Amino acid sequence: MRLHEYQAKQVFADAGVPTPAAKLAETVDEAVEAAEEIGYPVAIKAQVHVGGRGKAGGIKLVEDKEEAREAAEDIIGMDLKGYHVSTVLVEEAVDFVNELYVGVTMDRGEGKPVAMVSTKGGVNIEEVAEEDPDAIAREHIDPAFGMHPFQARKVVYEAGVDRDVANDVASVLTTLYQLWDDRDGSDVEVNPLMITSDDEVIAADAVMNVDDDALFRQPELAEMSEEAAEGDELEQKADEYDFDYVRLSGNVGIIGNGAGLVMTTLDLVDHYGGSPANFLDVGGGAKADRIANALDMVFSDENVDSVVFNIFGGITRGDEVAQGINQALEQFDEIPKPVVVRLAGTNAEEGMEILNEDLVTVEHTLEDAVQRAVNYAEEVEQ
């Protein structure tokens, strides 16, 4: 479960992390009223689960009432990378001199949580990791003992943080680790952690992802979960259909059975120059109606330009999958997105014979199926 920024900031603030004054607004008038109450300048920020909000027009800095109203009118109700914006956070603007990144996640290769700090805050940390990995200082933590104070100071100093604010940054990092541990987090980060001219340290953004399977022991966060999903109709639909689903930023829709198979498909889409639009695992033993629901979900994503179906039959039978695909697609006068299907395993040959090739493109290998779907998506973009 991913919290919205305003929810994560509430959790961080309750734990002692400094955050700017802010108010939530659902209408233009509420946003203007909040801006007047907080005092200008303020930032008006779309509350949706997507990165790059600023570049996409979802965050605007305003200096007066007229600008606040104009920005709120632009942002509330906009479509931001396929997400409908129904709520904005109106937040006190921070006059900063430096931006940092601090975060805690699980390093699955090491089997330990890792604390990370970088002086290159305010930008996509994945890009920093790829282009300049030495710009991120890392410290692995033994979960049996937690983060020792010296570890927090060590990683902060290794990142090159100014000594005047190093202790405060280390304190924020320690708090983030404690939240990660206590709240069953998967990722907890602040990007950017802003440093003011007075050497104040303020969390200007907040990310907190929590293990869904641990929500039974996190009742406060479980309540937030319902609010966190409200703005995303696809995630609500995934809950309704009981799918494992993650929305991504690409345009090649992916449906498979089994997490490993879906991840392999995602990797191949990337390998062949495409961009995955989602992770969607229909699970084992998927019947025709479940397959139809999966197609309904992917077709509902406006970002999707093509769909690749990758099913390996074990419990799931290829003929049942084929029936589901046919039933779903026969409902349309015109197929909304090109669909490529690869079936293997139990009753795969029977499934191939059942598939209506007037509605789908059939490929016999995963590599061919992925390449075909990527090509279809590229044709749409052109």
Describe this structure in words.
By secondary structure, the protein is α+β, with helices and mostly antiparallel strands. It folds into 3 domains: 21-92, ATP-grasp fold, A domain (Dna Ligase, domain 1, 2-Layer Sandwich), CATH 3.30.1490; 96-220, ATP-grasp fold, B domain (D-amino Acid Aminotransferase, Chain A, domain 1, 2-Layer Sandwich); 233-381, Succinyl-CoA synthetase domains (Rossmann fold, 3-Layer(aba) Sandwich), CATH 3.40.50. 40% of the residues lie in helices and 25% in strands. It has 13 helices and 18 strands. It has helices at residues 5-14, 28-38, 65-75, 125-131, 149-159, 163-182, 219-230, 233-241, 259-271, 288-299, 318-329, 348-354, 366-381, and strands at residues 22-25, 42-46, 59-62, 79-80, 83-84, 88-92, 96-107, 112-118, 136-140, 185-196, 201-203, 207-210, 244-247, 252-256, 278-281, 306-313, 339-345, 361-362. The strands form 5 sheets. Strands 7, 8, 9, 10, 11 and 12 form a 6-stranded antiparallel sheet that branches. α5 (149-159) packs across α6 and α11 (318-329) runs parallel beside α12. The radius of gyration is 23 Å and the shape is globular.
